[in-house]
Amino acid sequence: MEQHLHHFIEHFGYIGIMIALAGGIIGLPVPDEVLLTYTGYNVSTAMMSYSLALLCSLIGALLGISISYYLGIRLGLPFLHKFGPKIHITEKRIEQTKILFSKMGPFVLFIGYFIPGVRHVSAFLAGINEYRFKKFALYAYSGAFFWVFTFITLGQKLGNDWKIIKHYVEHYSTYLVLLIVLFVIIGGAIYYYRTKKERVQ
Fold first, then answer.
1. For the chain, what percentages of helix, strand and coil (3-state, to nearest 5) are there?
2. pLDDT category, 173, cuts 50, 70, 90?
3. At residue 36, what are phi and psi to the nearest 5 degrees?
4. φ and ψ at 114, to 5 degrees?
C-alpha cells in the first residue's frame, strides 16, 4: 500500500490527490483516509507543502461531494440502488444511511466523512431529499474541511507512524467517530464558555 501511494503521489502530486479524493467520495474504491494520512506524512518529510496539500485535498473532497449531491438531484434513489453495489455501496449501507439521514441529516452531512460508506451516500441523499444547496453546502463543506484537516494533520504529526491510522480506520472507525464528536463538543463548549466570559468582562 505504502509503495503504491508513494508512486501515485510522486507521479501525480497535488492534482492526483485532488482527483483521487473526488472519485473516492463519489464511490470509487479509493482508500481516502489512508491517502490523506499518507499525504500528511509527506508533509512531515517536507516533500509536500501543508497548505497546498490541505487546499488540494479540500478541493477534491468538495468536488466529489458536490457531484454526488447533483447526481442525487438528477438521478434519484433508483439509480443508487441499481449502481451503488457496483461501486461498493451496499444495499445495507444505503438503508442504514437513509434511516440515519432522515433523523439527523445535517449531522450526517458533517460527520459522515469519517464513516466509510456513509460519506458516499449522504450527499446523494441530500440531493434526493431536495436539500437547498446553501443548507447542503454549510454542513457538507464544513465537514469536508474538518475531515481533510484531521487526517492530514494526524499524518503530519505521526510522521513515520502514520500507518497507525490505517489500522484504526479499518478496525475502529465507529469509535474514532465517537471520539472525534466528543472532542468537537468539548472544544465547542470550552470556546463558548471562554467567549461568554470575555464578553462579561
1. 90, 0, 10
2. low
3. -65, -45
4. -80, -5
- Collapsing DSSP states into helix, strand and coil, what is residue 49? coil
Short-list 193, 69, 51, 87, CA closest to 133:
69
C-alpha 1/C-alpha 116 separation (Å) is 18
Q: Is residue 199 part of a domain?
A: no
Quote the pTM value.
0.73
Q: Tell me the one-letter amino acid at 42.
A: N
- On the 0-12 / 13-18 / 19+ scale of CB atoms within 10 A, 139 is buried
Phi and psi at 88, nearest 5°, equal: 70, 25
**Domain membership of residue 11 as a residue range:** 2-163
> Is the Cβ–Cβ distance between 68 and 94 less than 8 Å?
no
Is 197 part of a structural domain of the chain?
A: no
Q: Is residue 196 part of a domain?
A: no
Q: Is residue 159 part of a domain?
A: yes
Q: How many domains does the chain have?
A: 1
Which of the pair, 107 or 76, is modelled with greater confidence? 107
Bigger pLDDT: 25 vs 195: 25
Q: In which band, very low, low, confident or very high, does the pLDDT at 31 lie, cut at 50, 70 and 90?
A: confident
